[in-house]
Design goal:
- With 226 residues, this protein is an all-alpha fold.
- The chain has a domain of 152 residues.
- 94% of the residues lie in helices and 0% in strands.
- The protein contains 4 helices and no strands.
C-alpha cells in the first residue's frame, strides 16, 4: 500500500538530523509536521475503512457458516423423509456455503491483519507527530530567544554607543567651555593689566605735577634774598 510506504518513510526519518542539516530548519520542521498531519488523516480514514470491511467480512462469514448448518439440517430432514434427491441438493448447497464461509474466513483473517497494521502505523505516526511537534516548538522557541538576544545585544550596543557619544560630547563641551573660559579669563586679565598700567602712568604723571606744584609753592613761600 502506497500510504503505508509513505508513512513508513516518515516513521524512519530522523527528524532531528533532518532539521539540523536543513538550510531553513524552522521551515523544514513545519513542513514535516504538515506532512505527518496529512498522512495521519489519510491513515485514520484507511483504519476506519479497514475496520468497516473487517466487520462486513465477519458478517458474511457468519451468514455462510449459519447457511452451512441450516442446509445440513435440511439434508437430514430430507434423509428422514427418504428424499435422497432433496438431501443431495441440500448437501450441495451446504458445501457451497461452506466454501464461501471458508473464503470469507480467509479474507477476514487477512483484513484483520491489515487493520491491525494500519492501527499500529496510526499509533506510531501519532507518537512521531507529537515528538516532531515538540521538536518544532522547541526549535522555534530557541530561534525566537536567539533573535531576541540578538536584538537585545544590538540595542545594548546602541545604548552603550549612545552613552559613549554622550560622554564624549559632554567631555568635548566641557573642554570647549574651559577653553572659552580660559580665553575670556586671559582677555580679562590682559585687559586689567593694560588698564592698571595706564592708570599707573596717569597716576605717576599726576603725582609729578603735584610734586612740581608743591615744590613751586614751597619756593614761593621762601623769603627772597635781597
Amino acid at each position: 500500500m502506497a500510504l503505508l510506504e509513505r508513512v513508513g518513510t516518515l516513521l524512519r526519518a530522523n527528524v532531528n538530523d533532518l532539521i539540523e542539516k536543513a538550510e531553513d530548519p524552522e521551515k523544514l520542521a513545519k513542513q514535516l509536521v504538515l506532512d505527518m498531519e496529512n498522512q495521519l488523516l489519510q491513515l485514520k480514514t484507511q483504519v476506519a475503512i479497514a475496520i468497516a470491511d473487517q466487520h462486513l467480512l465477519q458478517k458474511k462469514q457468519k451468514e455462510h457458516s449459519e447457511a452451512v448448518a441450516e442446509w445440513h439440517r435440511k439434508a437430514e430432514v430430507a434423509v428422514e423423509k427418504q428424499k435422497d434427491d432433496l438431501a443431495r441438493a441440500a448437501l450441495e448447497r451446504s458445501l457451497s456455503h461452506e466454501r464461501l464461509a471458508a473464503g470469507f474466513a480467509q479474507q477476514l483473517e487477512d483484513q484483520t491483519a491489515e487493520a491491525e497494521t494500519l492501527r499500529t502505523a496510526f499509533a506510531r505516526l501519532q507518537q512521531k507527530l507529537a515528538e516532531t511537534q515538540s521538536a518544532t516548538e522547541m526549535l522555534i522557541a530557541q530561534r525566537r530567544r536567539a533573535r531576541t538576544a540578538g536584538k537585545a545585544h544590538a540595542a545594548h550596543a546602541a545604548i552603550e554607543g549612545s552613552r559613549r557619544t554622550q560622554v564624549l560630547g559632554r567631555l568635548r563641551s566641557s573642554i570647549e567651555r574651559d577653553e572659552v573660559t580660559n580665553l575670556v579669563a586671559r582677555t580679562m586679565i590682559d585687559g586689567e593689566s593694560m588698564r592698571d598700567s595706564l592708570e599707573e602712568r596717569f597716576t605717576a604723571l599726576e603725582q609729578e605735577d603735584r610734586v612740581e606744584r608743591l615744590l613751586e609753592e614751597m619756593k614761593n613761600r621762601q623769603p627772597r634774598l635781597a
